[in-house]
Amino acid sequence: DANLYQHKPFLDDFNTHKGTNLSSLDAIVLVPMAIYSNSIKDIKDIPNGAKIAIPNDATNESRALDLLAKANLIEFKSQNTLKTPIDISKNPKNLKFIELKAAQLPRALNDTDLAIITTNYALGAGLNPLKDGIFMEDKDS
User: Fold this and answer.
1) Fewer CB in 10 Å around end: N or C, the chain?
2) Structural domain of residue 81, as residue ranges?
3) What is the tens place of the pLDDT at every residue in 72-126?
4) Structure pTM?
């Protein structure tokens, strides 16, 4: 069997929790995760206390938090492979995290300041990461 949908942290988490030893054959294209907002147009304009909707599954939650760290909005206590909000050591803007199922994130844009959404759900909601995202994962994420 083979698949093309999972990223390395997902595979590692799967192996850990299922007691398997599956391996990756090669790196593939990973569609980027991006930060979206209905009201904020620039990552530098995120207000103090902003509410941010993030995925509630372990691997994509960690990706979302890593994206916020790359945007210099948070820092971590350590560089664990999978991070949660508990791992945040610095949060100078006092960002508030709302964990939701990934499919719910596009709808959360109406109720939060930001939502961090994987491309499959963004496209399904009519969002284009290149045009609508205010900050996006790079090719090395």
Assistant:
1) N
2) 31-136
3) 999 999 887 889 999 999 999 999 999 999 999 999 999 999 999 999 999 999 9
4) 0.81
Give me the CATH number covering residue 100: 3.40.190.10
What is the C-alpha separation between 42 and 73, in angstroms, rounded?
13
- Beta bridge partners, 88, equal 76
Q: Flag whether pLDDT at 18 surpasses 90.
A: no
CA distance 28 to 51: 32
Q: Residue 64: how many CB atoms within 10 A of its CB?
A: 27
For residues 75 and 96, give the distance between their C-alpha atoms in angstroms, rounded to a whole number: 14
Flag whether 14 is in a domain. Answer: no
The answer as to whether 20 is a domain residue is no
Distance set, CA 38 to CA 25, 109, 138 (Å): 39, 6, 22
Question: How far apart, in whole angstroms, are the C-alpha atoms of residue 99 and residue 6?
Answer: 20
Q: How many CA atoms lie within 13 A of 130 on its CB side?
A: 1
